[in-house]
Design goal:
Two copies of one chain form a homodimer. Chain A is an alpha/beta fold. Helices cover 27% and strands 27% of the residues of chain A. Chain A has a five-stranded parallel sheet with strand order 3-2-1-7-18. In chain A, helix 1 packs parallel to helix 8. The longest helix of chain A is centred in the last third of the chain and has 16 residues. The interface between A and B is large, with 63 and 64 residues.
Chain lengths: 456, 456
């Protein structure tokens, strides 16, 4: 089957990574990217830091303009174009030019869907008023920063205490905005453990954020002039000038659905280890697709930039006739809020319970450098391990430094299905100004082994 | 055989770690530590930071005094006692009280040698003059700091560009001392690769240190008043007030030798995976002993605090009747000099050549955070991998942050005998202020895979 005409829907990081890799693989192929918005090839994870003004120039987050990508890679990019329909039988896309309204057909030999995700915005009164924001793309970032730089926003409500919600708390405090963070669950940053969640709570409070848990937004009040208050489902009415929705994202799958492509249980596009969907010759990558979790072996919805980029390479290879596989994730994610770093990898308590595993935990307090060295910071690490064989199942950490380092070792251990017995022997870096002689990973393994030895 | 009376020779970190673990394992046993010096249980790796005055109080580096260890653990510590002879046949030590000169016999059921190492000091004229220093123990640190705080030392020569030499360069510059670092080999910080060595050189120069390579000390000139100059083997005579020997260490094995304990090819004490020496019931740990390198499977001399502590636990377990094994090292080490962090793990070029392996390298320049995020620092990573199967063999990194994190992932990969193909799939931390989307480990793996694919 021909692979001369490859089309990608979606021009954010995953789509453009796939496009440039296809070009490298197949110098002679036609490569076209169709993007609804005006920008391509941007670092979405960097947007909060543009809004915070840590990054002054939005162009720093944009790797290529459409013209640059054409000049460098001869990749044709159609920005401001929306794919209305996917006709799988004759491999055609029905595409609308959003500026002119003109509709045309674009054929493909291979198609990659990189349609991304959208913020979850509840269907409540006022949710479309000016002053209500999400943060997924360049337009969102420009609008949010413009608002904050006007100086007119004094109070903001953040809905959700996931990674974006916590990052936005820092962003808004940098603009001296009074922040109220509301979380529907009874504790913050689910699915982190309480030890970690309480460190997150303290960091928010220390930095002047208010928090309300176990509460939902039930309405937003305002007019064409903007918003002035919100209503909570506990009956409270709270004054605010801004609402930021950070209560998770949902995969953009309407095109896939229309085309009859199978979705997984999670609602995201089901793929195999070649990133191929149920439709032959059609691949899906990034935030619209599922991903295989190595620890459970199951496909889940776990949108992360790092796996999106890996999936993009794999889909690009397979679309251009080179067989490669994506081996799945261990579930690594990390976030910084103010001076606290929080990370996790592997599976969490809810999944452990769902799988009915025999699990024990080990929790340690450690220091990021030798305890006696100036600047050593306390950190907390907690692991889950299988009591039947000692296999590591998951890890969570929080502290002011050394978190990425620890999580990456735990992730490597999960990747290799290491037991806590074997982890005891990891040969990890030590020098007093940079790391402690007993790395937190080793301390966790020691405590876990002690618990297991006591059982037998 | 009885294990009621366990004796440890050497009261630094390894010896005391063994002692306290034996106490935990066997609450009823008699545990005795014999230490030549006045101090026990100190963090030797922290000594440079006491000398630099980053740490003001030497007691911060001392975990326990002999009295405290007795009160807490009922471990008897004889400081100021030297073991003169080991009579293996009747399990007796001949011990001299260095204060009184009195000699007595101390019996043991199990013995652990933690006799440490000494600086390599060449046999040249003047090497015992005042003003000539090593830095291995508390007394060395007190003497060096006293000298530097006198303000009378204006110029110093550091002999050797290994970890201690580089740390001492920073220490001496903090005291505003003019530093000349001399290295016998033609490049610094052997066995690091040239890319890394040149970053080390630049960091030293930027911080006002002078460097001479391919040169050795041939004499030290001075009198009872102190030293005033040194002679180099290139004929130069250089004025100096201080010489610091940092040209490596040699294991303290005279007691082991006297007792007929086998040494390895490296000259350090040969041990098995239980840390047992050739003499039944006698164990050796830490800087006096060899260690098995997991990558080559061979026993080598590679003294590191982290493996000393692990060996201490293993020797303590076996000495107290609990079978555990030490699984060996991957060869991880890291050093900070000024603002540069430098690390390595696995094997280096000289070992690769000695083993006659088919090896290729991959070198990448990366950033410690997202490239667009303020404070992102450049770093260099270089790996060695086997071209026959893609297995990772070693890694070296240098940069201002993120080095320990990367080296620890490489070390975990080596521990698990990962190939560069498999490393591509590691799920590593990413958030713009803390780490880049393409971790340096992944970039190295990508480049290595590209090289391997080109070959086939």
């Amino acid at each position: 089957m021909a692979r001369n005409n490859i089309v990608i829907v979606g021009g954010a990081a995953a789509g453009m990574t796939a496009a440039t890799r296809i070009r490298r693989n197949r110098p002679e192929a036609s490569v076209t990217v169709i993007e609804k918005g005006a920008y391509i090839s941007y670092a979405a994870c960097g947007l909060p830091y543009y809004v915070s003004d840590d990054i002054k120039d939005i162009n720093k987050l944009i790797l290529y303009t459409p013209q640059e990508i054409y000049d460098t890679y001869k990749i044709r990019v159609l920005t401001g174009h929306q794919v209305l329909n996917l006709h799988a039988r004759n491999r055609q896309l029905e595409v609308r030019n959003l500026e002119t309204g003109r509709i045309s057909d674009i054929g493909y030999d291979r198609l990659i869907l990189a349609t991304g995700a959208s913020p979850v915005i509840p269907d409540i009164p006022g949710s479309t008023l000016d002053g209500v924001y999400g943060l997924r793309n360049i337009d969102d970032a420009l609008a949010l920063k413009k608002n904050l730089e006007s100086g007119l926003t004094r109070r903001a409500i953040i809905v959700g205490s996931g990674y974006l919600g916590l990052e936005m708390a820092e962003v808004l405090r940098k603009h001296s905005v009074d922040v109220l963070l509301i979380e529907a669950k009874p504790h913050l940053i689910d699915p982190f453990e309480l030890e970690i969640a309480s460190m997150v709570k303290n960091e928010l409070l220390y930095n002047g954020c208010q928090i309300q848990k176990s509460v939902r937004l039930s309405g937003i009040n305002g007019s064409s002039e903007g918003i002035h208050s919100v209503e909570l489902d506990n009956g409270a009415e709270v004054l605010t000038d801004m609402v930021v929705f950070a209560a998770g994202i949902k995969p953009n799958v309407s095109l896939a659905k229309q085309a009859g492509i199978s979705l997984g249980k999670s609602g995201a596009i089901r793929i195999n280890n070649k990133q191929e969907t149920s439709l032959q010759g059609v691949y899906a990558i990034g935030d619209c697709a599922e991903v295989r979790h190595r620890v459970t072996g199951k496909y889940v919805y776990s949108p992360q930039a790092t796996s999106a980029l890996k999936q993009a390479r794999v889909a690009a290879d397979n679309a251009s006739g080179k067989f490669t596989k994506f081996e799945g994730i261990t579930g690594t994610a990390i976030v910084k809020l103010f001076n606290l770093h929080v990370g996790r990898t592997g599976i969490d308590k809810s999944i452990v319970q769902a799988l009915n595993l025999n699990v024990e935990t080990a929790t340690v307090e450690a220091t990021s450098r030798a305890a006696y060295y100036p600047g050593a910071e306390n950190l907390t690490a907690k692991i889950f391990f299988n009591t039947s064989d000692g296999q590591l199942l998951g890890a969570q950490m929080a502290g002011r430094e050394g978190i990425a380092a620890g999580i990456d070792v735990f992730s490597s251990a999960l990747h290799n299905k290491m037991t806590v017995f074997d982890m005891l022997h990891l040969d990890l870096s030590y020098t007093p100004p940079v790391a402690a002689a007993w790395n937190p990973v080793l301390l966790c393994a020691m405590q876990a082994v002690k618990k297991l030895n006591r059982r037998f």
